[in-house]
């Protein structure tokens, strides 16, 4: 009896732990050495294609952006442009601004070299979609202060 | 029969309703209220934190009020027709603070440094208090006369004559080499 029960237990546990439908948002990455290495060009194209998907939704866009922000890189202007169009398709203006801010943050200490280049590259897209840069919105400097939660 | 009951009990114990994997999700959901859950976030819970490494939090910062719903309708149109105020309102509906705001220096280090130095200097006063009220005075062998006598005795004993104290003393002329 116990054997039967533990078999059921393992089955149920397996079913609850392993999601049946995984979101393969960014493809499968082989994390072993000696395997195929993805070139920068392929990486950019992969993410551009991801953001260019016609049926992409807000959840997936945010997932892609959060993933990019967790990597040791500054997203290529190509990716940013595709992401801007994706934000336009899901009608989320704030998301577009937030992503530009995040990309600026990713520039780190070289922000004065990389960020102007990014803006220069994505400017036509921003103008086309009617997106302001964070600077134009005044978000390059702190705008509002937060009230202390202990004084509310 | 017992087998069947056991299985049923096990399944009931393990099965959780879809969308409520852990009880913390329920409490978080209660706190989230009418805010839209838009993203996986950094740990899969419906929470909001401004983080540079996960810039898109799991929920929108503000609940869906009628004002914001109207703005969202307008957002579906041409973004070039939105005013600056509307754009800022949309941003603040989704996010609490901009990058510049949550990365701005808080000045907290000043207080921390101040208190750290204050407490460190307190230890100096504790030291003096110990000297005055707790410890007995130093032994008399610490005064100059006794120290000199000890040095003389060490030289007489030829302590460390190869490369130490005695090797530096000229015994014929009675002076340091």
TrEMBL record, chain A:
<dbReference type="InterPro" id="IPR003204">
    <property type="entry name" value="Cyt_c_oxidase_su5A/6"/>
</dbReference>
<keyword id="KW-0479">Metal-binding</keyword>
<keyword id="KW-0999">Mitochondrion inner membrane</keyword>
<protein>
    <recommendedName>
        <fullName>Cytochrome c oxidase subunit 5A, mitochondrial</fullName>
    </recommendedName>
</protein>
<dbReference type="Pfam" id="PF02284">
    <property type="entry name" value="COX5A"/>
</dbReference>
<dbReference type="InterPro" id="IPR036545">
    <property type="entry name" value="Cyt_c_oxidase_su5A/6_sf"/>
</dbReference>
<comment type="pathway">
    <text>Energy metabolism; oxidative phosphorylation.</text>
</comment>
<comment type="similarity">
    <text>Belongs to the cytochrome c oxidase subunit 5A family.</text>
</comment>
<keyword id="KW-0408">Iron</keyword>
<keyword id="KW-0472">Membrane</keyword>
<keyword id="KW-0809">Transit peptide</keyword>
<comment type="function">
    <text>Component of the cytochrome c oxidase, the last enzyme in the mitochondrial electron transport chain which drives oxidative phosphorylation. The respiratory chain contains 3 multisubunit complexes succinate dehydrogenase (complex II, CII), ubiquinol-cytochrome c oxidoreductase (cytochrome b-c1 complex, complex III, CIII) and cytochrome c oxidase (complex IV, CIV), that cooperate to transfer electrons derived from NADH and succinate to molecular oxygen, creating an electrochemical gradient over the inner membrane that drives transmembrane transport and the ATP synthase.</text>
</comment>
<keyword id="KW-0496">Mitochondrion</keyword>
<keyword id="KW-0349">Heme</keyword>
<comment type="subunit">
    <text>Component of the cytochrome c oxidase (complex IV, CIV), a multisubunit enzyme composed of a catalytic core of 3 subunits and several supernumerary subunits. The complex exists as a monomer or a dimer and forms supercomplexes (SCs) in the inner mitochondrial membrane with ubiquinol-cytochrome c oxidoreductase (cytochrome b-c1 complex, complex III, CIII).</text>
</comment>
From TrEMBL, chain B:
<keyword id="KW-0999">Mitochondrion inner membrane</keyword>
<protein>
    <recommendedName>
        <fullName>Cytochrome c oxidase subunit 4</fullName>
    </recommendedName>
</protein>
<comment type="function">
    <text>Component of the cytochrome c oxidase, the last enzyme in the mitochondrial electron transport chain which drives oxidative phosphorylation.</text>
</comment>
<dbReference type="InterPro" id="IPR004203">
    <property type="entry name" value="Cyt_c_oxidase_su4_fam"/>
</dbReference>
<dbReference type="InterPro" id="IPR036639">
    <property type="entry name" value="Cyt_c_oxidase_su4_sf"/>
</dbReference>
<dbReference type="Pfam" id="PF02936">
    <property type="entry name" value="COX4"/>
</dbReference>
<keyword id="KW-0560">Oxidoreductase</keyword>
<keyword id="KW-0812">Transmembrane</keyword>
<keyword id="KW-0809">Transit peptide</keyword>
<comment type="similarity">
    <text>Belongs to the cytochrome c oxidase IV family.</text>
</comment>
<comment type="subunit">
    <text>Component of the cytochrome c oxidase (complex IV, CIV), a multisubunit enzyme composed of 14 subunits.</text>
</comment>
<keyword id="KW-1133">Transmembrane helix</keyword>
<keyword id="KW-0472">Membrane</keyword>
<keyword id="KW-0496">Mitochondrion</keyword>
<dbReference type="InterPro" id="IPR013288">
    <property type="entry name" value="Cyt_c_oxidase_su4"/>
</dbReference>
<comment type="pathway">
    <text>Energy metabolism; oxidative phosphorylation.</text>
</comment>
